[in-house]
Design a protein that fits this description.
By secondary structure, this protein is α/β, with parallel strands linked by helices. It has one domain: Rossmann fold. Helices cover 44% and strands 16% of the residues. It is built from ten helices and seven strands. It has a seven-stranded parallel β-sheet with strand order 3-2-1-4-5-6-7, with helices on both faces. Helix 2 links the parallel strand 2 and strand 3. The longest helix has 24 residues. It is globular and about 65 Å long. The N and C termini lie far apart (38 Å). The structure holds nicotinamide-adenine-dinucleotide (NAD). Nicotinamide-adenine-dinucleotide binds next to helix 1, strand 5 and helix 7.
């Protein structure tokens, strides 16, 4: 069920990073933020231009696209200067960026290419630091702003096929805490949403993704959370209703993180033994 808008983000302006195509979590976030009255710039890496799609989202959300590589400080400074000229200062930032280069190229965790590993950490985690830093140094961030980054429980527990991305998400969640402390004096908050496996371009780039998805589905009392529900949760974190929540990793996973094993999984394993 798609909720209708309640004006939760009326008057708020921001930047949403990472919408690539209709299956992207950031795409659903942009639609939900727009529905709630928020207005924003869309940003993605210049290489994403040729993959197409983003114009459609920009049209339907009345937004502008500003291309910026989130690992490039000059691109980010230019983006925030641009945002300032459109909006004055921004009230929210959504970081929905990730890429595991070794994972994509099937390099095992015990045999990482370290140049790729550093690139993975830069794209998937340090980019959050770069973005917040650029927003502060360009004086583009409003007091009381809210920042949300997307994470995965592989930051906290070992999901073997998630490999280097587990390290990247652990760093991302640590940056959320470390920066959160520093931003608190301006009433700015920053949180990570730890989202269920979701069928997206980044998700399906992980070998064994289907198994992780099925496992999540069988384990979670509510089933896996989809991108649309993640978008609604993001809206709540960008809204003033959650103004005292900061520096948290918040699980949006249908209950997965509180489970040990479920009856559905036990039964499927018993079934495997019987067959
Ligand atoms: N799909 C899942 O199962 C899942 C689960 C939990 C968390 N997440 C996280 O959600 C976020 C969004 O991923 P998604 O699943 O929607 O996939 P996606 O592939 O649609 O989004 C990832 C985005 O990162 C962008 N990106 C990559 N390199 C960049 C760079 N240098 N500069 C700027 N942007 C860059 C891509 O262009 C893309 O838009 C990621 O942080 C991902 O790790 C995904």
């Amino acid at each position: 069920m798609t909720p209708t808008g309640n004006g939760l983000l009326q008057g708020k302006k921001g930047i949403i990073f990472g919408a690539l195509n209709e299956s992207s979590i950031a795409w659903a976030v942009a639609e939900a933020v727009y529905r709630e009255g928020g207005r924003f710039l869309l940003s993605n890496a210049p290489v994403a231009k040729r993959l197409g799609g983003l114009d459609e989202l920009a049209d339907k959300t009345e937004s502008r696209i500003v291309w910026a590589d989130a690992t490039n400080d000059d691109d980010l400074a230019a983006l925030f200067e641009d945002a300032k000229s459109s909006f004055g200062t921004v009230d929210f930032i959504v970081h929905s960026i990730g890429m595991g280069i070794n994972v994509r190229k099937d390099r095992e965790y015990t045999d990482l290419n370290y140049d790729w590993y550093l690139k993975t950490l830069d794209i998937s985690a340090i980019s959050l630091h770069r973005i917040v830093h650029a927003a502060e140094t360009t004086e583009a961030l409003s007091d009381g702003a809210s920042i949300v980054a997307m994470s995965y429980i592989g930051a906290q527990r070992v999901f073997t096929k998630y490999s280097e991305m587990g390290d990247a998400k652990a760093l991302l969640e640590s940056i959320v805490r470390s920066y959160g402390y520093r931003l608190g004096k301006r009433g700015i908050r920053i949180n990570a949403i730890s989202q269920s496996p979701t069928r997206t371009t980044a998700g399906s780039g992980i070998t064994g993704f289907d198994a992780m998805f099925e496992f999540g589905e069988k384990m979670s009392p509510l089933g896996n959370a989809d991108a649309a529900s993640c978008a609604d949760y993001t809206v709540s974190l960008l809204s003033d209703l959650t103004r005292m929540v900061t520096m948290q990793t918040l699980y949006h996973d249908g209950g997965f993180s509180a489970m040990g094993i479920s009856t559905a999984l036990v039964e499927s394993m018993v079934g495997m033994q019987d067959s």
